[in-house]
Amino acid sequence: MGQGKEQFDPAVADSVRLFGEQYTFQEHPGAPGMVWAAAGGRADVYNVADKKRRRWGLKVFFAKFRTQAILQSTEQLRRFEGYEGLMAAHRRVVTPSEGDAKTYLPLHYAVLMPWVPGRTWYDCLQSAESQGTIHNVKVARDLAIRFLRVMEQLESSGVAHTDISAGNVTVEHKSKDTQLIDLEDMYLPQAPKPVNLHHGTPGYSHPAETITWRPSGDRYATAVLTAELLLTSNDTLARMASSSGFFTDNRRNPDAQLRFRQAEPYLGEVAPGFSKLFAQVWESTSLDACPKIRDLLESVNRDAGRLVSPPIRTPVITPAPAEAGADTDAGSQTSESVTWVQDDRVTFETSGDRPGQADAPPAAKQKPSASKRRGDVPAPQFTMSESPSGLGTLLLWVILALFIIFMVSRLLL
User: Fold this and answer.
1) Residues 337-350 pLDDT 10s
2) How high is the pLDDT of residue 366?
3) 42/60 Cα distance (integer angstroms)
4) 193: buried, middle or exposed (CB in 10 Å: 19+, 13-18, 0-12)?
């Protein structure tokens, strides 16, 4: 690791000592010799392992965001440690007097949290753009329901993430799990406002440019990302994805409006109830005017033929890193710091699914590609196999034809 208080450039196998434990920086699975790290807008998150080989994420903030406010937000997040989709809420903050933070200034107010399995939705969109369909319709619906359940529990608690976007949601196809990351600026009823308020991320921000630090702050972005989860089950539409999402912008942008019209027929086929609500979201005048997330969840459940959300594997987070000498359980399935609980009556079907590899390394961030011209956007072609109602409609026509033949034969006799 680079020497000097201002320098922090870890290499593979370098380690830091924090909270009485040694954490070693891991090699990037897709880039031998390179340290495994994910770059964000405010911090770099490194994949580190303790002596028991449990994986953790060490979030090292850039100087501008390295403040005591992180201590306050972490304390406020403790009440959500047991929420679905909020593994990242289970964290510890590195104070300036803690371990190697006394040597390396960039470690001041760094956050140590469980390494969240899966890939960011940003990386999934990159795969969709180049490869087409990344999951089948059933998996798309299951992921949409899981994501909406995570978001609904926040809104029903009067809480909002405030920056739902492709880079802040992870997807793990095998377990059909979604997780939220970048939780530092969550809206909490009694929490102080962040210094830097924002309107959301382009491609997921409401056209009214409303500040998202409010109870309804996630409604628009949640609907957009849910639509993307469903749309990427169609090969033609999946290839229209970009680093700025599927729609790339909101209805004020002609290209985004065209993409919305291109998406409508397929959404109407695979999720007709959600499609109607999404149209309301797309045309809404404000975040408060958007349908509630509970309504979105109920619509997708109905579209999938479910009265209630299906049982899913839920992460149970092991305790935070123990002090030296403490005995903790190292067993897990997906990540050594996470235990997955599953109802034995539930079978997760993955037939026909082509997801990205679980726990795949995040792709290097790229600048959003230029919007495609109107004439470059292909009209999606749907087949009987993509339409959940196609087989039923064909069967009705066959029955009707047989009935007509029977009645005509009776008349002739």
Assistant:
1) 333 333 332 222 33
2) 39
3) 9
4) exposed
